[in-house]
Amino acid sequence: TGAISSLQRQMEIQESELRRIKSEKDLLQKQLREREIQLQAVSDKFCSLTEEQRQGEFVAMVEEENRSLHQIVTEQESQLSEQSKFINELQTTINRLRAEVVNARLHILEQKQTQKEIQSLADTLQHKALQTRMALEHITCKFERYRNKIIQATFSVEGSQDPPGELTDNDLLEAMQKIINERTEFQQRLKNRSSK
């Protein structure tokens, strides 16, 4: 935004300069037209003189004024040419600054769009994280209930002793494995006895 404001200020300065130069150019063109009219009037006046009047001081004065007017016209034409060149350069600069402003605005719009997409993605990820956390809590709760049931079933078997203090998962697995082994052995003895 700062870059755009700076470019716009530069563009306004260049446009103000362009208006000033155009005004000067119009003034020079007006002066040039006036000088051309004067020159034409002097030429007409010179042409209307009689042969005798063309000689002497008046002829010299008219020719001097004619040369002076020609020089002024040439200088003003040169100034007009320089002013036109400068105007073209200013117009090129203004067009470049306008293009830079447009590009900067497009860049800002792209950044806003990217920011909006990132925010949308962040919201989606946050929502998924919340869902995952809730699912994890639910699974953890179910696992604890299931574990408590296993502990209860394992240590409620006849002849088993209550667990000493806090029970680890390995302790629980060993106790379950012991019960399984005992039952397997008992079933095996029953099969042997029935076969006899």
UniProtKB/TrEMBL annotation:
Keyword Coiled coil: yes
Recorded superkingdom: Eukaryota
Presence of keyword Coiled coil: yes
InterPro entries: CC-FHA_domain
UniProt signal peptide: none
Residue ranges of coiled coil: 4-45, 80-107
UniProt keyword list: Coiled coil
This protein's name: CCD27 protein
